[in-house]
Amino acid sequence: MLRSAFPKEMETGRLIVRALEDEFYLDHFWERAVQAHVDQVLSDIGGATKVGLLGDVDGTLSTYTHRFPDWASHSVRVPGLAELPSASKLRISYLAEKPEDFILACPKAVEPLLHEHMKSARFRWLREDAKALQEFRESEELALNASPALTVNTVCEQAGAVLLIKKRSWPGRGLYELPGAPAISKESLKTTAIRALQRQTEVADQRGPIPEGILSRYVARSAYFDDADRDGRGRFISQAFLVQFPRGKTRFTINGSNADADPHWVQFSDIDRVQLYGDHRMIIRNFLSI
């Protein structure tokens, strides 16, 4: 969309667009990626030595100036910007297929891209997922507003692979997630996490399903994850456990029979190729640095 809105600037090389993923919990990964992208652009164009951060200094730009103190910062006032709907409202209108709401806020060159995207399978998936998220938020509104929900997850690693669940239900159908479950008041978080792991994956060795007592011995460490935007369903906090299975000639077998669980071993090299639900990719990276 940026390239379509500024074709002349793209053609002359005045505008260079680079995509960059967010990184929850590991700010230094994100900062390093930003620096690497900027260094590469400076190297490609040659001769340029000045770097500036453009934006509203009173808003989000102030956060970036603290992260990149070596770069200059400049506040830019855009007339009429305050009257435009927020990105969240535009996204809701777009997924509801109400072009009269989002087209007015977009450059003319972007309109064909938006309309073409609305015909795609990806858009249909996003629309169904947004609908499921909204229904969940409405059904759980009182509970989630009263206090954050607490959940547990496990990052199971063995012989260069991570154990993931492919979701069969909305929201996030078709995405991968870590084994997990809501916390239960009458048992420890570790117990709930191990029980959910065995129920969802039926992990087994050559002697059969591994008892929960044995699985718990493989827990190496734990950490909590609480970014406010980590889950589109609402305010969820997760206590995650790193489970390191022993190395051997073969990995433990899995055979999830739960209607909502489809477990898979995913190699480290494929983690970035699969789509992971919420912040689960960041949780894996936090434990395994991959």
Dominant shape: globular
Record field, number of beta strands: 11
State the helical fraction: 25-40%
Average pLDDT taken over every residue = 88
Spell out the helices and strands N to C. Answer: HHHEHEHHHHHEEEEHEEHEEEH
Main sheet, how many strands, which sense, barrel? 7 strands, mixed
Strand percentage lies at 15-25%
Quaternary state reads single chain
Q: What structural category characterises the helix and strand content? A: alpha+beta
Uncertain runs are none
CA distance, first residue to last residue: 31 Å
Radius of gyration in whole Å, from Cα?
Answer: 23 Å
Plain-language structure description:
By secondary structure, the chain is of the alpha+beta class. The protein contains twelve helices and eleven strands. The strands form three sheets. Strands 3, 4, 5, 6, 9, 10 and 11 form a seven-stranded mixed beta sheet that branches. The chain has a two-stranded parallel sheet with strand order 1-2. The longest helix is centred in the first third of the chain and has 19 residues, at 27-45. The relative contact order is 0.12. The mean pLDDT is 88.
